[in-house]
Amino acid sequence: MRTLRSSARPARLPHARGGFTLIEASLATVIVGVGVVAMVEAQQAFIRSNLWSSHAATGTFLANEIRELTRNLPKHDPVTGLYFQGGEIGSPVLVGWGPEAGEVLVTDFDDLDDFDGISFSFVGTPGLVDLDLPGPVNAFGEVIPNIGPDGSVAAPDPETGEVAPMTGWTQTVFVQKVSPFDTGTVVPDAQTEPASGSFRGRQVHEYPLRVTVEVSYQAPFATEAEVVARVTWIVP
Hints:
This protein has 236 residues and is of the alpha+beta class. It has one domain. The protein contains one helix and eight strands. The strands form two sheets. Strands 3, 4, 5, 6, 7 and 8 form a six-stranded mixed beta sheet that branches. The chain is elongated, with a radius of gyration of 34 Å. The relative contact order is 0.14.
């Protein structure tokens, strides 16, 4: 028996394309590019956040070192105190606010008001001419040495014996008299209150003090420093 063969030929499949069109390649490039940019921006944001957290922690540490340094100091000089010295009639001069004569180093400061306006900076110089002393300093009044990227501590200078301080960091101290009834209200250094009725008055040295430490950091190549931490406390 003979098998009949169909004379119809099978339909030919369409020819498969090879490669991508220009539009497809462009879309793929855009998609990959957007993904890469997003990853880079996310990484940069993480680095910035991590760097800021590190700076904030360092700044808080440096501010608390000043607090520890001044914790046991009296408000005003333990020998001379804070008082008025007679000048012209009606204009007595306040004596005792700020460093007294002979107090030129942080280890000389023996009361809180000595620290008012003083900065401890990596560019500070010895002496109180510009109120900018070498620093930052720790709770013992010692300059904190710089630490390198590998964790090594800077060695003292063989000639002067001085250590290279923490680069870029500055501690600035502000001491202000405040109202006994509202510590948010600053009063003049020479503020007093006269007696009235049963109130005996308030002498110039009988006010609470508000101490504020601002810690700033100036990054390499930056034109100015940025405050990264601020610590405030009240001394009644």
